[in-house]
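Q: What residues go here?
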């Protein structure tokens, strides 16, 4: 088991290193550089030379990558080309805000998705299953900006129950984001609940048809014990990977939701940096999101191995 954990950790570290190299190479391949993007028409003469010297762009690419990677390991992601401010503190604030949004959505969406998925599987092809499946299809097919616009119109403009956009500054205390965070959380919950619920439903249906469940029923085991002991532990394991992908998406893929609701999170910060062509910030955000994606999926794989003895024995035998 220890060998498996070490192997997975080494694979995760290697993946993050490759991601950092690809990100740096992609930014390096862009026409011009960060100083040309920021200075634009003024990117000539002494100003351009001073900017490149301040950002270290006058050095070879290999040396800059090694310095950037080493700095990233110590939490130093460089400086913004636009404001010349350290990038790490700015990212930390936006990441905090996005984690608040993601945490609230997970706290509501995951239990709801598990409950609906289990209920739909146990009442297959009946009213609960049909309603839950229909809601899941709507949640997955309706774009976030559409559902966000509808919610703003209904609950903010028409009913006036909650604010339609977030007015708090990015550095404001977390309490300042309430109640403006309610509608963004609802939009994210709709999407993530649909995906997780469908996975749980399919998994529960498959386990219900398995031999060991049928054998337990033939032995006269009470139905509630069959569900709790024989079905759920095996059926919920596939949901771990889906939840992991959802967490990675919530931390980096909520660009549309944050933009629509004016929420000062990581996704909106990425869009603003791309608009301003602040390439060092875009590079830092891409590295952070890539590391989060790899880390969350690695944690999900390790958790699945710990909870499933059959996978552990299979990996050990291999």
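A:
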């Amino acid at each position: 088991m220890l060998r498996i954990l070490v192997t997975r950790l080494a694979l995760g570290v290697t993946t993050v290193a490759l991601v950092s190299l690809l990100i740096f190479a992609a930014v390096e391949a862009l026409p011009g550089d960060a100083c040309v993007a920021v200075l634009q028409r003024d990117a000539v003469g002494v100003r351009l030379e001073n900017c490149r010297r301040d950002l270290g762009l006058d050095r070879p690419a290999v040396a800059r990558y090694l310095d950037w990677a080493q700095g990233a390991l110590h939490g130093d992601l460089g400086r913004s080309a636009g404001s010349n401010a350290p990038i790490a503190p700015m990212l930390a604030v936006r990441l905090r805000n996005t984690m608040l949004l993601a945490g609230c959505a997970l706290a509501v969406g995951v239990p709801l998705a598990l409950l609906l998925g289990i209920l739909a599987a146990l009442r297959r092809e009946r009213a609960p299953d049909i309603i839950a499946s229909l809601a899941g299809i709507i949640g997955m097919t309706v774009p976030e900006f559409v559902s966000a616009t509808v919610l703003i119109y209904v609950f903010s403009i028409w009913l006036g129950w909650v604010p339609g956009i977030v007015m708090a500054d990015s550095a404001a205390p977390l309490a300042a984001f309430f109640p403006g965070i309610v509608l963004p959380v609802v939009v994210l919950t709709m999407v993530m609940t649909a995906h997780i619920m469908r996975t749980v439903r399919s998994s529960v249906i498959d386990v219900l048809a398995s031999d060991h469940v049928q054998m337990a029923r033939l032995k006269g085991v009470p139905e509630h014990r069959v569900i709790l002991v024989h079905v759920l532990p095996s059926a919920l394991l596939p949901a771990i990977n889906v939840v992991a992908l959802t967490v990675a998406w919530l931390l980096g893929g909520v660009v549309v939701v944050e933009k629509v609701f004016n929420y000062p999170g990581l996704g909106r910060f990425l869009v603003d940096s791309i608009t301003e062509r602040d390439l060092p910030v875009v590079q830092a955000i891409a590295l952070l999101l890539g590391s989060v994606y790899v880390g969350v999926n690695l944690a999900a794989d390790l958790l699945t191995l710990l909870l499933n003895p059959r996978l552990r024995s299979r990996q050990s035998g291999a």
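A: Context that may help when evaluating the design: Residues 213 and 219 are 10 Å apart (CA to CA). The chain has 15 helices and no strands.
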